[in-house]
Structures are given as structure tokens and as C-alpha cells.
Amino acid sequence: MVNSIIGGLVTLLLVMFLLRRQIKNAFLHEDISARGSADEELTAIIEREKDRMRDDESRASP
Fold first, then answer.
1. What pLDDT sits at residue 57?
2. Secondary structure of residue 61 in the 3-state scheme
3. Could you give the CA distance from residue 62 to residue 56 in angstroms, rounded to a whole number?
4. For 7-55, how does the pLDDT look when each residue is reduced to its tens digit (9 = 90+)?
5. Taking the model in full, what pTM does it have?
6. Distance between the two ends of the chain, CA-based, in angstroms?
7. Distance between CA 52 and CA 46 in Å, rounded?
8. To the nearest 10°, the Cα dihedral for 25, 26, 30, 33?
9. DSSP 34
10. Three-class SS state of 62
């Protein structure tokens, strides 16, 4: 009887550990994908500003 209780507790702890790890991985994946989209937005903004600066320079040159 004691063996079955200990086995059940060990199984429960193992399941809790694995679920916690899966949840952490899911949140980490969301952070990475969110960071990737933010990087893409920043890259687009930088490219637009570079284009704007080139246009301003070309207009300023005689």
C-alpha cells in the first residue's frame, strides 16, 4: 500500500514537472516570435527612414 502511494506521488511529481516545462517552452516560443515581429517592424522603419534621407539628399543636391 505504501509503495502504491509513493509511486502515485512520484508519477504526479513527474507529470507536474513535464507540464511546467511544456508551459515554459510555449511562453518562450511566444516571446521569441513576438520579438521577431518587433525586429521586422524596426527593420521596416529603419529602411523607410533611410529611403527618406536618400530622397532628401537627392532633392538637396543641385
1. 82
2. coil
3. 12
4. 899 999 999 998 888 887 777 766 666 666 777 788 888 899 999 988 8
5. 0.41
6. 94
7. 10
8. 60
9. H
10. coil
